[in-house]
Amino acid sequence: MKVFKFGGASIKNADAIKNMCQIIANNATEKLVVVVSAMGKTTNNLESLLFNKAKQEAQDENLKSLLEYHMDICRELFPSDHNIFNLLIDQISELRTTLNKEMPFDQLYDQTVSVGELISSTIITNYLNLKGTSSLWLDAREYIRTSNSFREGHVDWKVTEELIKHDVKELAKDQILVTQGFIGRADNGLTTTLGREGSDFTAAIFASCLSAESVTVWKDVPGILNGDPKKVADTILFDELPYQEAAEMTYYGATVIHPKTIKPLANKGIPLYVRSFDHPDEPGTIIHDCKLRTDLPPTIIIKNDQCLLSFKVVDFTFINEDNLSLIFKTVSENDIKINIMQNSAISFSIVIDNDMKKIQKLMVSLKDHFDIRYNSGLQLITLKNYKPSTLQEYRKDKKILLEQISRNNYRALIAP
Fold first, then answer.
1. Residues 280, 371: Cα–Cα separation, whole Å
2. pLDDT tens digits for range 370-379
């Protein structure tokens, strides 16, 4: 049993879907679970629908545009009398009904953005069958059970493993299984999501519960590079990485793999391949149980749009365990991830993603205990396994607000 995952870029148009389905067809002799994201920028467009609803703006044009995007793709893939067109109309109609419901924003968010994966998996299953690759559409929500923490559902591993083991292997005996990334279901029956870009995690969940042979994530890059080629010149491809190194890279902000993906695979010793869907014959990168090479090039991870929050005690005492406990508790309650932290005698600073809604809630909760200041629009640079020349390059002529250096890693928060 193998698990493949295809992201939005790999299925953004008809040609991309044809390429993806050829990759699947070439591996059709394997027992295969295929996890797909929403097509192209569909998730962004679905988020726009939600924000427009919040502003009480009309949805008709955006819904029409969303339908036409998928219809245009299907017109290139299917004969005009294929039932896929009716299925798309029904899915958009159901989305319209969902958007008219009144519920808390995060709950409505999950019911809305999950439609992208439901649509893409429906199209791909039908196209595979049309081209002669026997395939079955699998509803991920029937297998992945989560808490009711909308937008960041926590997997109930015991129940999920029981459900996946019950029939997925049997269903995969004679057909390809196509399912959705990113989504699950809470005990109350409502759809949940696993966090933005969580389709990689879905692939790892299925693979772990099935004790799969491997997971392959098909990307628009040749594998895992030592930097984002859009931000870093002359990047270098890693041919292999140990689980721990890859996990640390995701923790620091590398975006090729979702941060939650590595742990369930490492626990079962399941290798993770990152390969190019444009060049499927190339080996890419394998993440597995291996030793960390001493000659690895520095990994350069750049996170933009960061916010520095500093909490200063106001009663002439020092930052102590009680202060830290209060800050951490409030940060956790507001579902905020700290990207880096640092303290002095009278203040404690954290760097987080610039989500002003969460930041404002955090500041309101702690304003009676601390003098709080913040700077936004910052850039956080991490150099893993740095060399002196790399360090100098990224420190030179920079306005550094916060800096940390250890034996292997250098991190700096930079103002524009």
1. 54
2. 999 999 999 9
More confident residue, 324 or 59: 324
Q: Report the C-alpha gap between 143 and 165 in whole angstroms.
A: 9
Q: Which residues contact 371 (CB under 8 A, 6 or more apart)?
A: 311, 312, 313, 314
Nearest CA to 360 among 309, 415, 305? 309
Q: What is the pLDDT of residues 240-269, one digit of tens each?
A: 999 999 999 999 988 889 889 999 999 999
The CATH superfamily of 2-288 is Acetylglutamate kinase-like (3.40.1160.10)
Tell me the one-letter amino acid at 8. G
pLDDT band at 293 (very low <50, low <70, confident <90, very high): confident
Q: Looking at 157-281, list the stretches that DSSP marks H as alpha helix, in order from N- to C-terminal side.
A: 157-171, 199-210, 243-252, 262-268
Q: What is the DSSP string of 255-275?
A: -SS-TTSHHHHHHHT--EEEE
Residues contacting 359, CB < 8 A, separation 6+: 307, 309, 352, 374
- Paired with 220 in beta bridges are none
Tell me the helix, strand and coil percentages in the chain, rounded to 5: 40, 25, 35
Q: Which amino acid is at 347?
A: S
Angle at which helix 115-130 crosses helix 14-26, to 10 degrees, equals: 60
Most confident range, picked from 82-96, 251-265, 305-319: 82-96
3-class DSSP state for residue 298? coil
Q: How far apart are CA 314 and CA 316, in angstroms?
A: 6
List the chain domain ranges.
2-288, 299-415
β-strand partners of 179: 35
User: How many residues make up the chain in this entry?
Assistant: 416
How many of the other CB atoms lie within 10 Å of CB of 211? Answer: 12
Residue 40 near residue 13 (C-beta atoms within 8 A): yes
Q: What ranges in 281-414 are assigned the alpha helix state H?
A: 321-333, 356-366, 388-395
Amino acid at 15: D
Q: What is the pLDDT of residue 290?
A: 96
Question: Angle at Cα 309 formed by Cα 308 and Cα 310, nearest 5°?
Answer: 120
Q: Which fold has domain 299-415?
A: VC0802-like (3.30.2130)
